[in-house]
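Batch manifest, entry 17 of 40.
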Amino acid sequence: MERIKKITHTDKSAYIASKQRWDNIAKPLGSFGLLEGMIQKIAAVQGTADVDISRKTAVIMCGDHGVTVEGVTQCGSEVTAECAIAIAEGRSNINAVASQFGIDVIAVDVGIAKDVECSLLVDRKIAYGTANITRMPAMTNGQMMSAVKTGMDIVGELSQNGTNLVISGEMGIGNTTSASAVASVLLGLPPEQVTGRGAGLSSEGLGRKINAVRSAIAVNSPNIDDCYDVLRKLGGLEMAAMTGLFLGGAFYHIPVVIDGVISAAAAAIAYGIQPICSEYMLASHCSNEPAGKGLLEYCRQKPVISAELRLGEGTGGALLAPLLDGAAALYNNAHKFNETSIERYVELK
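Output type: structure tokens
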């Protein structure tokens, strides 16, 4: 896609100016830790030291997975549609968290396995779920590219309504199996090291899930040097759409927050497609799923929250919002060295 080819690096001068502003605040240098770096990163994305994150939107991509027939989940695919409706109508987990912090929420159907009657659910359906990855590729090339484009388009639409921070989220029963398969390939690790219990599998169920991941990789033989190929063969429609969110964030110059392991898998794919987009990513937390840490490291991200989260729906990403708001309040409003008699701290070498 032409937009991906046009992605450019963030503004280094704005990053430096933001650091200088931090260093003029009357406090020990770097004492607000990773949050200082995140504000600087946002400044570089926005091209100005005057950071604005006042309009935040959580985008929850929804899609089903054919691999659920392999007994890799505790519940059936019908739950995806139920939860997508709940998110769209403001009744789900992400809505409860987001409303506390003034975050808008939209739910997008890119691949739910049935037609959903809900006027509040954004209909961008590309297919009725993915194929069973233990038997064949998850998507056709056309389906995958349409999903990526959808994610990018949504960021473009949000940029028009004033959104200046996007939080990625997902809903899709079976998607941790796909994320584990993607992680196994990208990280070069055996399935048993990157596959977890997801929404709550028994040991027997976990064994089936690990075997499904192993079979999916063997059957599809994804090309590790081609992240599109990995995504098409092992991913999900919602994962592909989230990949588009990260690529779209880079194109439209809007920072995008990584949530849990599915979001991290999408971020890793986006990084593999266009490494520059890592400059536009913010990692909220490290998922408690086994692949979480490795996927974040793959796309050069360091999370600020360590709370063993694994809920999904963008909930962990939403928890980054008040931390960023707190950092921005300090950044904009705290007293400065040139306004006080406090001696300026000197950076130690």
